[in-house]
Amino acid sequence: MRYNALLVRSVRWTRIDLPAGVADQLLNLGRVSLRQGKQQQAISYLRQALGLFRHTGHKYGETETLQILAEALNGDGQPGAARRELEIALGLAAETGNTYQQASAHRDLAESYHLAGEDGQARHHWQQALTLYTQLGASEADQIQARLSAQQETAQQ
Fold this sequence. Notes:
Oligomer: single chain
CATH topology of the largest domain: Serine Threonine Protein Phosphatase 5, Tetratricopeptide repeat
CATH architecture of the largest domain: Alpha Horseshoe
Distance between the termini: 46 Å
Order of helices and strands: HHHHHHHH
Mean pLDDT: 89
Structural class: mainly alpha
Largest sheet: none
């Protein structure tokens, strides 16, 4: 709770002419609120951050915020809205050539589809994530490979 209060105070002290700095702080408030289980509060902070990132043209911040917003929306019981935000994040990551964000958007989409019981879509996005993480040499590739193997074993039973 104390950390959250410090971040709120920090947002108030940030100069208005620095919207990207305010957006970063709102993003952090959204993360903290999400970890505290306060999905509605997180969604509010994240939507504010998203608006500022869009206003400043900060695509990386926008993409990151969309992915965290999707996590909050999933936690709030809004999986369809979460997937819409993730599709936008995936498009932005592709547009900017950020392979890591593309991979993580595919991973998050896979998880969302898996939770919805849409295993074909989940498998497609896990495979895309695996390909991208492998190209990057990222350790996440091993986790995705394990998910794909587990899903395949379950499907064969």
